[in-house]
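Re: beginner question about structure tokens

> Can someone show what the tokenized structure looks like for a real chain? I only ever see the sequence side.

Sure, here's an example I had lying around. Input first:
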Amino acid sequence: MQASLPFIQTMSMSLRSVTHNPLRLQMRTHARGAMLGLALGDALGATVEFMTPREIRAQLGRHNQIRGGGWLRLACGQVTDDTTMAFALAEAWLLRRNAPAAEDYAQAFDTWMRAKPVDIGNTVRRGIVRFRNTGQACVLPSEDAGNGATMRCAPIGLVLLGAPSDTIARATLAQARVTHYHPLTDAATLTVVNMVQAGVSGAGIRAVMAQANLLVREFPQFGFRGKHVDNPSGYIVDTMRAVLHAIDINDNFESALVEVVNRGGDADTTGAIAGMIMGALHGEAGLPERWLRALDPGVYKRCIDYADGLIERSPAWLL
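And the corresponding structure tokens:
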């Protein structure tokens, strides 16, 4: 059970020309945009996670401010597992001279869970506990096509910008399958990595959405045009349809993020995924200043530090 190799190769082939000798300043600011966008979308969406659009309107009107609260009772600017798992994935790369193995990803996630994060999904917990008990860093194929592997994947897109498509695919799926092993999750996670890379490389919105179109061509259930998805669940198809539709009908970071989180449901994760893609596309300068000021200062610094460290290790940076 895995995304087909031709699909993986086709998704990444179009990125090679635009990642050849890109400007380092552009890469740095757009890499920062991806990591900060992930955290901003997470923090914005966490307030309304598991609420319906009707409940959001009744309690908050149009939710467009980072304010904390929600079912997790977060402080203003605090983030959830979506962001902190991405931090763990970033550390798996930055703390090693060589590329991590699957066991390194699993160990990083195990360390993250031992630190008692504010939230953790059931599928993620099961995968990490399985690694603790068996030493196996890949779960068995299952029917659980969740979004937990996709929400944390931004660091792969940054550190492997300009790498061969098979290298990107191996790393993407190795980190994903510590906790999730399903062809739909595989394909969605690869798509998001490639969308992030298209954004960071400066290829523009057409190249970003071309990756979404490739996903739909291979897996039509991800079709998103003209389909408004309310209350998206943790099922990766629901998540991606909401995210891709919001990106497709909005032309800036803030409007896309506000659009997707006001649909409720698994709003921290739809916000995080939309945030990493739109942040990669628009760069640090395209993020709302009032949201950046509201973000927890420690989270802000880690986003900057990880973005810089990851992109400076990428093949594109070293050209």
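Each token stands for a local structural state, so reading them left to right follows the chain. The two ends are 35 Å apart (CA to CA).
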